[in-house]
What does this fold into?
Amino acid sequence: MLKVPEYIAELKPYVPGKPVEELERELGIKDSVKLASNENPLGPSEKALEAIDERLLGSLNRYPDGGGYYLKEALAQRLGVAEEEIILGNGSNELLDVAVRTFMKPGENAVMAWPSFVVYPMSVQAQGGTATMVPLTDFRHDLEAMALAVTPETKIIFIANPNNPTGTINTAAELDALMARVPEDVLVVLDEAYYEYVTGTSYADSMKHFRAGRNVLVLRTFSKIYGLAGLRVGYGIARREILAEMDKVREPFNTSTVAQAAALAALKDEEHVGRSRRINGEGKEFLYGELGSLGVRYVPTEANFVYMFVQDARKTYEALLMRGVIVRPMGPEALRVTVGLPEENRRFVAALGETLKERR
Ligand SMILES: Cc1ncc(COP(=O)(O)O)c(C=O)c1O
It folds into this structure.
């Protein structure tokens, strides 16, 4: 009989959504809109697609460049850091997992907010660690309470800024206060998957703490504004001593040839990033107005999704699904809806309006 450690046996797997095509077949619907995974509705940058050319495809018999030379070089230039201060990952998801495996032993602890990105507690449990989940205050990370939750066993603090699923940010003053209290043997993971969407001027400056030589790992990704979620490429920025340890733990070829080339081109396509940001800003404003008219309470967002409150989120989710709109239920009374293209936002609002009317 194969035995797994208890903490693995008790781990609840991440449940991926069904492929859209399969869902449509089962429900007998067509032209559904997917607003469930905070992807870029504009699609990938044309330049990224062009970079996946014949020459590149013809080289797929070779392993990728395990050091990610060109992508790291471009990121280093863009960010004003050294190449050794960057690590590439199979999505930023892999990097937070590598951080856990590098810096935490079974029995040790990580502090995180809740609700926040579901992968943090899963990754910690997979390592046999314990997760202290500090409730959000006003839908934001309570960084003071999180600092107080640190014990001698704590090795990592996770901060999603903006937070998923609420779209809220923490301010520079709040992060500074937390950093002033964090012990020297704790790594602070500053997960900035939605960094490029933020417009709030008080947004915390994670790079300041990196430059000050603190134990921070700043995580960003090509999955969101760059529109490359399917290719799986993200990056981390940290002191070289931190990354030297993580480099031992990551897989040698963790980002593919195609992913590296497309990410490099996407990074340079500022027009696509700008357009994505603009569409998102307009979509947010549209949704705020329509949700207001429907009397649906929501949390103003700094990301590309909106957290909103409905009665019986599961039923609302199912009713929306029957109308071909796929969103994400979050607990009993909330939905998280990705900001889509104008037509997709209209489809969502119309479907939500009908669903709420049916209830009355
Ligand atoms: C807060 C947060 N962090 C990290 C990720 C992981 O993104 P990826 O692995 O695609 O870079 C996500 C994805 O939804 C997220 O919402």
User: Anything to note?
Assistant: The radius of gyration is 21 Å. Residues 38, 91-93, 117, 160, 164, 191, 193, 221, 223, 229, 234 surround pyridoxal-5'-phosphate (CB under 6 Å).
